[in-house]
Write a structure and sequence with these properties.
Length: about 375
């Protein structure tokens, strides 16, 4: 099987996993091999609470070290803060987040990365809300070498499909949806769901979908075709439906979390699942549908406290990392050990933080972060 065939097959399997979570372990393993990696994982992180978890991991991931990461080392991971501020859908490697020569000096590298024989990681945020982000991580072993441009190109080809599948999987809410009875199974979900052909004609809508059509606040039907009230978004989704008719790989990056605003001002999000190949083909054939469109109200997406702090005081990623480490770990010596840098380096960044925030003591910094974490407390 050549590279294009492998990619097409992998994309189809990614979308199948959106409806059958049991497929994710194998899909992640295939994605890791496609990108020349040892292991891959889907999980979540809360950058403020310094906690997280793994949804699914490929067989190449060590369960012992995965558990250790979320029990202990997530608080010492120097890449977490920078990763959280990265653009959703943009893969970043370790060297994008901090100089690699600094990374190898950290406790995180010495105690968690190096013992596994790992050398690099490509991290991609798939979705983000407030302080929590879901992510795709791809790990390279020493035998794989560092990520090169070809590997990153391959990752960029599959990331949009992981994003779409992960978002749709969240909408479905882990219901056991058989593709052969997709429409019947999803009639009970709160999101509006529409099965459409490549021309945008509606061949089925669930109960919530009919309610949306009747309200005509976000979208409506015109002579049997689905019409989004926003002309620009309507054109985008029409192109996505047409692409879906040509197979999974043709869908590209369009139709991933498309924002919609109703006439009343409420924000919604639309996601497209192709139905023309894989296990989903049975549903597409049964209903003459090329794609399923899910439309739901957008969750509140308030900025995280660290993001607000960084913006308010114009802190660099390194300065923010030192600030959060002071709050989490303690004094200069402890922060230096945790970040794997010299105490003089920590002091230099700390002086800059003091100057930018108009604070003079570490206790004041702890208070500052606490105030930003509590929306009921006024800003100093």
């Amino acid at each position: 099987m050549d590279s294009s065939e492998r990619l097409s097959t992998l994309i189809g399997e990614i979308y199948d996993a959106a409806l059958d979570p049991n497929l994710w372990v194998d899909v992640l393993g295939r994605a890791a091999r496609f990108a020349g990696c040892t292991a891959a994982g889907l999980g979540w992180k809360d950058v403020t609470a310094k906690r997280g978890g793994i949804y699914f991991a490929s067989e190449g991931a060590d369960p012992h070290y995965t558990r250790l990461y979320f029990e202990k080392y997530i608080k010492l991971d120097p890449c977490s803060v920078g990763q959280f501020f990265a653009d959703v859908g943009q893969p970043l490697i370790t060297a994008d987040l901090l100089p690699y020569e600094e990374f190898v000096l950290t406790r995180f590298y010495k105690e968690w990365v190096k013992p596994q024989g790992l050398i690099d990681c490509a991290m991609t945020a798939l979705d983000r809300a407030t302080t929590v982000s879901s992510f795709l991580h791809l790990f390279r072993h020493q035998r794989d070498g560092f990520f090169d441009e070809d590997a990153l190109r391959r990752i960029r080809l599959i990331v949009p499909h992981f994003r779409r599948a992960a978002l749709i999987g969240k909408i479905v809410d882990s219901k056991k949806a058989e593709a052969a009875s997709l429409a019947d199974t999803l009639d009970g979900i709160s999101a509006g769901m529409f099965l459409v052909d490549a021309a945008g004609r509606i061949v089925h809508a669930n109960v919530a979908g009919h309610v949306m059509l009747d309200a005509a606040d976000v979208l409506h039907a015109d002579r049997g075709c689905l019409v989004v009230n926003d002309p620009a978004v309507h054109r985008m989704l029409a192109e996505t439906f047409a692409s879906a008719g040509n197979g999974d790989a043709a869908l590209g990056i369009t139709g991933v979390g498309v924002p919609l605003i109703s006439r009343s001002g409420e924000r919604h999000v639309a996601n497209v699942l192709p139905l023309t190949s894989g296990a989903r083909r049975r549903a597409g054939t049964s209903y003459a549908a090329a794609a399923a469109l899910f439309v739901h109200k957008a969750a509140l997406d308030a900025p995280s406290p660290p993001a607000v702090i960084a913006k308010a005081y114009k802190l660099t990623p390194t300065e923010l990392r030192v600030l959060l480490a002071v709050v989490e770990v303690g004094g200069v010596r402890e922060v230096a050990q945790a970040l794997g840098v010299a105490e003089t380096t920590v002091k230099t960044h700390l002086r800059s933080v003091y100057k930018k925030t108009s604070r003079s003591r570490q206790a004041d910094l702890v208070k500052l972060v606490a105030e930003f974490s509590n929306p009921l407390v006024g800003r100093a």
